[in-house]
Amino acid sequence: MNRVLMRVWMALALATPLASAVAGDVIRTSPTITLRDGYAGYPEFMKECEWAEELPAHLVEYSKGLVELTDQDLDTVPGRTLRIRIMHMRSAEGGGFSGPKWAVIRADLFEDGKLIGQFQPYRRTMTMFRGGCSSLSKISDALAADTAAWLRRGDFRVQFQDEQNTIEIGPDEDVPPIQ
């Protein structure tokens, strides 16, 4: 009986630090993404569409517990925080007749206020019978999946020292298609 109690106690003693380490690795982000400073984007689509709120919600879902939403100012949150900004975007009504819709976001990962990683995915879509908001919703879903995969990989490095560096959009074959 004592041997069983000793094993239970040892298991609990070993599991407690592990559980706190896992809980401490949670990344917190805002429930809404914003435009980068100085960028106007497409104001009508920022007001009318819900994609700026959908992206963080999808990120929480796809990260499988790695990311949580917080209403707190990310500058005051200890531990890991993720700031997501829209760097560039294009949307329009008219489905395929108005051309491709696309967006570039930048995810900046901080640990206790220090920048430790950046990720800048780009996604586009061009479907015939999809409006501007619907296209952005589809794009936000794909960008959230890309960002969650990056966070799970742990491939963190600072890539963009300059806030206003040139946004490069590669050829179509560089962009994973949205299913």
Could you characterize the architecture of this molecule?
- This protein is an alpha/beta fold.
- Strands 1, 2, 3, 4, 5, 6 and 7 form a 7-stranded mixed β-sheet that branches.
Quick take:
The protein is of the alpha/beta class.
Q: Which helices and strands, and how do they pair?
A:
Blueprint: H1 2-24, E1 27-29, E2 34-35, H2 43-48, H3 51-63, E3 67-69, E4 80-90, E5 101-111, E6 114-119, E7 122-125, H4 132-153
Parallel strand pairs: 1-3, 1-4, 2-4
Antiparallel strand pairs: 4-5, 5-6, 5-7
Helix pairs in contact: 3-4
Task: Work out the helix count.
Answer: 4
Amount of helix: 25-40%
Q: How many distinct beta strands?
A: 7
Overall mean confidence score, pLDDT: 75
Give the H and E element order: HEEHHEEEEEH
Secondary-structure-based class equals alpha/beta
Q: What distance separates the N and C termini?
A: 57 Å
What low-confidence regions span 5 or more consecutive residues with pLDDT below 50?
Answer: 11-23, 164-177
Largest sheet: 7 strands, mixed
Instruction: Give the C-alpha Rg.
Output: 20 Å
Structural shape:
globular
How much of the polypeptide forms β-strand, as a percent range? 15-25%
